[in-house]
Amino acid sequence: MKKLIFILLIPLLYGSLSAQKKIVIEDLRSFSMHGLESIYLQTPAIRQTLLRNLNEIVLQHFDCPLADTNSLSVEMLKLPRARTKADFNTSDTNQLHLFLDLYQYRPFDFFLATRATQNDTSVMKSTKTVIRLSALLAKDKNTVLLNKTIDLLLSHGETPGMGIVSENTYLSPKSFLEVLRTGFRLLLDPQDMTEQIGIKATPVFQAENLLMPALSQQQRSVAATQKNGAAFTYNSEREMVRYGDKLYQEIELRGKNPTPLTPFLRNVIEEARNKSRSDFIFLHQELRDVKRDHNYLLKLLIQVGPDTEVSNPLTNFMEGYVHYLLKDKDTIARFSISHNARMRGKFIYPDKVWNGFDTASLHTFSLAQVVPPQPLVAAYQVKGQIGKHMFTINCLGSNTVKEILVDDKRICIVQGRFIPERFVFFDASLSPEILDQLLLIGFSGFLE
Description:
Elements: H1 2-18, E1 22-32, H2 44-62, E2 74-76, E3 95-105, H3 107-114, H4 121-126, E4 127-140, E5 143-156, H5 173-187, E6 196-201, E7 205-208, H6 212-215, E8 221-222, E9 224-226, E10 229-234, E11 237-250, H7 263-275, E12 279-289, E13 294-304, E14 323-327, E15 330-354, E16 363-364, E17 374-386, E18 389-396, E19 401-406, E20 409-415, E21 422-425, H8 432-442
Parallel strand pairs: 1-2, 1-3, 5-6
Antiparallel strand pairs: 3-4, 4-5, 7-15, 8-21, 9-10, 10-11, 11-12, 12-13, 13-14, 14-15, 15-16, 15-17, 17-18, 18-19, 19-20, 20-21
Helix pairs in contact: 2-5
């Protein structure tokens, strides 16, 4: 009897499966206003993973599998196009028809067009890119079962990665798939009415031949940061640096109250003034080594005048060793500051990104045109003398990561713009006091 029941159930089960509806992805259209994420869709392995994720999602929400989990057609658009109807060529009533769009927008253009979060400036400032997902699911040409759109506002999350943060790629291949899975899970849920969601994703770093080889798989030391300072561990000892307010002082060469200047600085300023009708300013920032109870004054010389060509005149640093770190009346360091300094023999690779931790994550984009390596340029290069040592601080990646060298030896690479956040140390022979002094110089708020 048991054998007979088993034989009878097989045809019934087969008949049920054969009548089950399946979902056909008719097309996936992609457009990118900026960013290279859409190019990930040209990678077969990424398309395959995306299909598997979509199959799980439609099974969950519609109890229907995808008709094809092996191939996905992607149309790359030059301009975004609205989808006005479900257009397909089959009359098979056992098929549902799914149309997907993936559009990527610059945050400025998105917020300007939607005005959805114009009062939330924190969201606008933190958003790096916006991905808009749209889905239309149709039973036939006249019956639409689902027609929805969701906007994914992507910002940077926490990461152990270090290096030059990419300015044209915002997601790694892994993060790209995770973000799409989150977005499509909400989008294809008929009961979910979410129209906009913020997502934090780990940033992507640009491949280059200066920092990347040195940072790969190196142990990181994470600083405890505050609004105006950071505490970190160096040689098993706790260090703490703080950064004070930024002030400026106009320099007067004549009159009743001329600014006190050394003969050297006076000669430098007068020579520059003879060449152009400029004004000169000292930028001041009070700094502190908390552990040693040492207070410092950073003193930078700026030239402002009709010949100034930089967008921010307060970054028009005078050339030469005319900038100082002072402790009381003692000069601790003298240095120069160069803007947009080219790093000799060092290059960025625009078609390659990595996760900032392991070069095994390196991804090369399949671009339509070969993009040659580009010269690596430091936003600022600080070079000078501190005590008996010569030092260089290379401020790279829009001043978000610093390389510190002393006597031509790499001491550390430090992530952060105005506050040290993460360290990789390469040489622990430098005294902690000098290290703190260099961090106070390199993370000055004037290096904007």
